[in-house]
Predict the structure.
Amino acid sequence: MRFIDEYRDAGAAAGLARAIRETVRNPWAIMEMCGGQTHTILKFSLEELLPPGIELVHGPGCPVCVTPVEMIDKAIAVSSVPGVIFCSFGDMLRVPGSSRSLFDAKAAGADVRVVYSPMDALETARSNPGREVVFFAIGFETTAPANATAAHEARRRGRMNFSLLVSQVLVPPAIRSILSAEDNRVQGFLAAGHVCTIMGTGEYEPIAERYRVPIVVTGFEPLDILEGIYLCVKQLESGRHEVENQYARSVSRGGNQKARSLLEEVFRVVPMKWRGIGEIAHSGLALRPEFSPWDAEAKFGVAGLAAEESSECRSGEVLRGVLKPSDCPAFGTLCDPDHPLGAPMVSSEGACAAYHRYRRRAAAEVPAR
C-alpha cells in the first residue's frame, strides 16, 4: 500500500541496520517514548536487526498505561451515578482500578459507552438533554486539542449536561523525571512523532542540553524507528546531544500553533500523578477555572478520591525503563490480558501487551527440535 509499504521496505531496513552496525562502537540504551513505537519494534522484530550493544528501553509512552488508579476509580464512581452516560475510548474499559474496571461497572448496569471522539460524546449530550454525559479525557498532547475543542464547544453552545473527566499528561516532564532518577540508565530518546506534531520540537531542546542526551523525534513505521536509532547512535558515538527531527513529514519545530493556542485557552498546567511512577511536577493538564462547569471531578464531587496500586504489579518499573515486561514475576502468570494487574497488559499500546502478544507468538512459531 502506498505511503505504508515504502516505510516497511525490507531492503531499506537492512541498509539502515547495516549503517547502525557500522556506526556503533559502544553499548547504548535508547528509550522509545511511545507505545506505538514499542509495538512496531516487537511486531517487526526490529531488535533482531540491531547489534548486541544497542538496547531498546520501553518508556511511559502509553497514556492509558499511565492513567492513575484513582482516576479509574473516579471514572467508575461517576459512571455509577444514576442517569449518567459515561463515554470513553474503548481501550480504557478493561484497565483495572483498585478493585474493578469500567467494563465491570458496565456489566453491573452503568451506562458506559464507547465513542471515537469527544465530539461524539458532546453529540450524545445534545441527544440526551435530560441526562448527564461525561467524557473520559485521557491522553498525551496528541489527544488534548480534541478534548479542548469539546470543552470549548460545550461552553459556546451552553451544553450544561456535558462534562470532562480529565487525565491529560505531558511528555517532556516525564523525560526529565526519568533522567533525574538515580536508577536511570537511558542515554538517548526516540520522541513520539504524534506528540511533536502538536507541540513541535522546541520544548525538547532545553532537556537535551541540560541532561546532555540526544533526542530524535521519530515516526512509527519500521524505517522511521530504524532511522531514528541510527541518528541517535550517531550522536551518542560523536558525543553530541541535540534534538533531531526524523519525522519531518509531519513535525515542525513550532508544532501546530492553532492547537497550542487552544490548549492554552482551555487548560492549565498542574502536577499529575502517573500510574506506577508517582506525581511529576508540571506534567498534567486541568481545565481552567472558567471551564469549571464542565469539569466532571467538581460536578460529581470525586476530586478527593484516592486509591492504592497493586503491590504485585511492577508496571511502574516497566514504564520507567528499569524493568522489561518479561522480567516481572507476574508476567504471564498472575497477570495476562484476561486477568491484568496493570494497564500495560491491556492497553493497545502497552509494553506488557506487546510482549505477551508478539514474544509469545514468536516463541510458538519456533519449530520443535
Summary: The chain has one domain: 1-24+61-310. The mean pLDDT is 92. The domain at 1-24+61-310 is CATH 3.40.50.11740 (Rossmann fold). The first strand starts at residue 28 and ends at 32.
